[in-house]
């Protein structure tokens, strides 16, 4: 496999090269390019690699400009410090959209996605390829990490670490799967459309919960439902409001 890296921060480029080699030392890194201009020149003069890892913010503009000039038909993994370009990224043949700092796990997941898509093409299974691209692009539209704080300390938490969000006296808390509580700077109303609806559900006006945090669903009086969580103690009962029960059942079966 041949990969080209487009990244204007040399420390970030070196880190990505190291992570690629840790993933698979046989991967050939054909070039590390630093700008739109350099990338256009390189890609117009040489055969295109199997895969590109591309930072969105480059020294001379947004890397999307490269694809307006170069007729590139190869998959791209975008890397960026911002989560606001996901929809733009998926206008191109984007395999994944990784928020910086790039981790070994995130990079490995992205390259594995590429391999799955490539396998579909080799097998001429375009239906599977379409499903893979669709699933990937929809999932990446949503927020996948949060800056949360405890006191004066701030932490990055991935969406899969979240058990639930809840509001209390106009403060919204993120509770992780170990029961740790953090403050985040969102209202539930602003947070809800940023979350992947495949994983998260608004059970009532005070709480949004992740499916993997739910251990049991029990009937509750007045046609409501009560949720019991997996290995997490809460100070109050988690009740699904009556007007959300039907939608919850549909969501749970999805």
Report on the architecture of this protein.
The chain is α/β, with parallel strands linked by helices. It has helices at residues 10-23, 36-45, 64-69, 86-89, 104-122, 126-140, 188-191, 245-253; strands at residues 2-6, 28-33, 51-55, 57-58, 61-62, 76-80, 94-99, 145-150, 153-158, 162-168, 171-176, 181-184, 200-204, 207-210, 214-220, 224-229, 238-240. The strands form five sheets. Strands 2-1-3-6-7 form a five-stranded parallel beta sheet, with helices on both faces. A five-stranded antiparallel beta sheet has the order 12-11-10-14-13, with helices on one face. A three-stranded antiparallel beta sheet has the order 15-16-17, with no helix packed on it. A hairpin with a 2-residue loop joins β13 (200-204) and β14. α5 packs antiparallel against α6. It is elongated and about 70 Å long. The model is unreliable at 125-130 (pLDDT under 50).
